[in-house]
Please model this.
Amino acid sequence: MNVEKTIENIIAKCDNYIDPQLAVCIIRDNYTMGSNNIDELKKYDIENEDSYVEKVLKVLKHENIFITFGMLAFIPLFNECDIFSIEDKTISLSSEEFQKYGDLKEEYFGVLIEKNSNNFIIGSCDLCGCKIDSSFRQIKKSEDNFYKTINTIIESNIIY
Model:
């Protein structure tokens, strides 16, 4: 994964679903959320004249980061999932898939990039970093419709 080019690609498309300045947040080693205000960080040798992507790359040397690709919203009445992202779509889930994923409730989905690397894990993160239990959760790879849709969106927007 080319982290710089991938972040630039996502930021360029952010106005479809999220504020570009909130596309990246820090994820601590215990998977709890850190700051999502990368633009205002003053450590990690970040300077005011650095671009947003340059700031994120400096942070990545020291912290895991989560790049948001979109938002999930589960609708129990219809037993399906709205995905608000670069590729807007609603997907129908089987009963098993709904039982497996229905508890996510309006979360961002994207990738966690491990600090000082280009290794990534597909997962979800709470909408609000101010909650005490806000954290990243890996979405386990599977053959179901939900995972395939998320994976397709992510793979089609990652630059290698």
About this structure: Helices lie at 3-13, 52-60, 95-101, 145-155. The mean pLDDT is 88.
